[in-house]
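Bump. Still looking for diguanylate cyclase structure tokens.
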Amino acid sequence: MWGADVSDDGVYHLYVAVALQQALYGLGWAAGARLLPASRPAMRAWAAFSLCTAAGLGLAVMRPLLPPWVGVVGANVFLLLPFVLVWRAVELFFGLPPHRGWQGALALGLLATLVYLGPAPEQSTTRAWVMLLAIGGIIGAAALRSHGPMRHEFGPVVAWVVHLPGLLAALVLLAVLAGVAASPHRHLQDLASLDLALPLGYGMLLACNGIHLAYGGMQLTRLARRLLHLSRHDGLTGLLNRRAMHDVLQDEWQRHLRLGSGFALLMLDLDHFKQVNDRWGHHAGDLALVHTARLLDRQLRPTDRASRHGGEEFLLLLPGVDGLTALQVAERLRQQLQADPVALDDGMRLGLTVSIGVAGLAPGDDGVAALLRRADAALYQAKADGRNQVSLAPDPPPPPQGPPNRQRLAQGSRRARADEF
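Sorry for the wait, here they are.
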């Protein structure tokens, strides 16, 4: 470090182990940056931090074999400046506004300070203060910068657990600083002894492992969430896909069985969509689908759910709504889509119309599949009536007198599990 003794076997092996560990972390982050383009800037910053720290520790353990400017000043530069990259990596990871000016000024100031102090033995105490205060301050700044976004994305428990290693590392650094402050006139060989080298090595081990494990775990969590989102959402429109909507409908049916709550389905189909693709191209068709999805997202309530049912068809679930109310919602959606043409890339405006079939849950429906069939039949009726229409499916005949309620609930539950669409 600033000139601390690492010749002791225990300290030497500790520093070598941390250096090798940092190098492996750096290679892992670099490989991840190649595989995950969306996270590449942050991962590159973590990789640079790890590899530079490994280089600094390597220079520290080889100090007796190197010129003082390389073994002392070079090691300190490679150990201290990478912590500025931690600050930057945190901002990149959470998409925060960058503080490049502050970070650049800090890096240049620290570099100038280390060069000014040089490798002279009589400056060892000052170098110790600079190194420990800078590392502790940067870790604290990064923690403060990331705590709010981390709480928002991963929860308060994760935020505090992630910052605990940094807090412990800061306590280690404060303990070292307290020892230096208590004996400012000690001889260099006492100050640069195992008393400083060993706790600093353990502090580096704790801080670096905490950083890598925490942010690596959060990166994996993001990736898992992203994969789950992709498995349940349409890649073009961002709406639920058919499989996810099936699960939502089954949950809504179970809620109906428990509470007696109603719901309605809207089946939408863009009129003459094939002609849009044939005349304007598939890109224009994609724009039309995205435009429709965004309009639905704006118009629906937070409790409503929308999915891309397939091709140019969309399926909407309106909880707590009867057929007549759903008919009014469908008419409003039809009018909104007709009044809001799609803006194509060349500046032209493409008008769209939609046919909508509406079905409200009725006593004669014995499951989700029955309600879907009625909504689909109403959609075909709207098309048969000339398109750009809204059609309400008639209620099915009421069921015959059934068994007692408990048995009927059990039968309804079995039917719901068997429903597919």
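The CA atoms of residues 5 and 376 lie 79 Å apart.

Edit: fixed formatting.
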